[in-house]
Amino acid sequence: MKRENMIAQIERHKGEWDFIVIGGGATGVGTAIEAASRGYKVLLMEQSDFGKGTSSRSTKLVHGGVRYLQQGNLTLVLEALKERGLLRKNAPHLVHDLPFIVPNYDWWEGPFYGIGLKLYDMLAGKEGFGSSKLLSKEETIKHIPTVEPDGLSGGVIYYDGQFDDARLIINMAETAYEQGAVLVNYMKVDSLIKSNSVVCGVTATDLEASKTYELRAKAVINATGVFSDSVRKMDDVNSTNIVVGSQGTHIVLDRSFLPGDSAIMVPHTDDGRVLFAIPWHDTILVGTTDNEVNDYLLEPIPKEGEIEFLLTHTARYLTKDPKRSDILSVFSGLRPLVKSGDAENTAAISRDHTILISRSGLVTICGGKWTTYRKMAEDVIDHAAHLAQLDEKPSVTARLQIHGCHNHAAEFGDLEIYGSDAIAIKELYRENKSYKDILHPKFKTTHGEVVWAVRNEMARTVDDFLSRRTRNLLLDAKASVEAAPSVAKIMAKELGKNRKWMKNQIEEFNRIANNYIVE
Which among 2, 57, 339, 386 is most buried, taking Cβ atoms within 10 Å? Predict the structure, then answer.
């Protein structure tokens, strides 16, 4: 998957595309897979990097949504549990089971959450990841040795899924490409083209080459998440905003705070959200907050109150209380929630997805959640194909394996996240002995992985590699800053860039990373 080849395909393409998709997050890339796998001609454009926004900043869970079970939204839970099972089958190298413990400190919590989680098991049916059960105090401590023992009466264990969101986005983009889609990062849509008041294409600029294109399509799909309203206003400046932005912040801690293989789930925090503490890539991920925001940034900045909220709630449930100095990294993501007249706050807004078709024919898909991206894509292509008067073609994505699919990826050791691509990366190591060198003592990432990301995964910047092709920025921000010069040097050689480019890349990455570091 090479960017220059994608640009060449755009320039060779004659006539209309069936679909142009704006947005390279989970929803957009999922939509490209859905369209291409049905045999439609689809072009996707992302203004930054694939998954740069919300889709790389999740809590890393593939789940039915215990929170939505509490809200009584059984339809969403059922749909998400089904999609959770499909995703584990189609991307087993990135999705796996994870036990969650709900510690109980009041007499009623065991029976209350026990019954609720049995319902969760029942809704999952044959796609279940494991049966929930009540735990004694001793069993709870065995699973979570660092859980706060004072007042602990027991716990409930249940099972859900965990994944690496940014890595899945990259593998999804490769899947879309293999199905015939054209996908380009750093291609910004500037405006919509209309003919007889009907949307029929876009103007877009290749930000690397500063070249503008006019591109036609039978239908244009807006899958830009929190930026959905800005695209809708390209269509109609008077359109009413539909997105409510909610900022979710996570902190990353050393594994000593939560040793073992189990996660903690706190069903109800002070702001009404579910809180998780999860083992992830040899660290502990704690999140998330829920604060309404009005400014939608590609790099959301964590607020001091969010950091303190997470530290305070973590300290309530663990014997080892984390301090600011213990935070290895902090990151925020913006959830694109769709406005609801009944919701009093963002924690109460459902994750049901919404499809809107404007009078001029712009198709917008918004809302939803990571786990249900495939179903969202199926629904939006059903609508868009009908709008574009294309031949109906059935969806095949429920059984379509994601690029890298490998049922025993753990055998690849540190290259497990690459799935079947690990074999090719090991071959790459034979090309140059230095490719096996480690980038930084804090990481297992090699020089060869940088080369692989540039050659095969469309990594164009140091941030692309350290944030999304690997997760190093999220795992240890300060160590990532130290690794950046080595990454820039390797990338410059692969991309044919000069020292000025390297200097600019290091400075830009340091600027981004500064927001991930807590002083």
Answer: 57
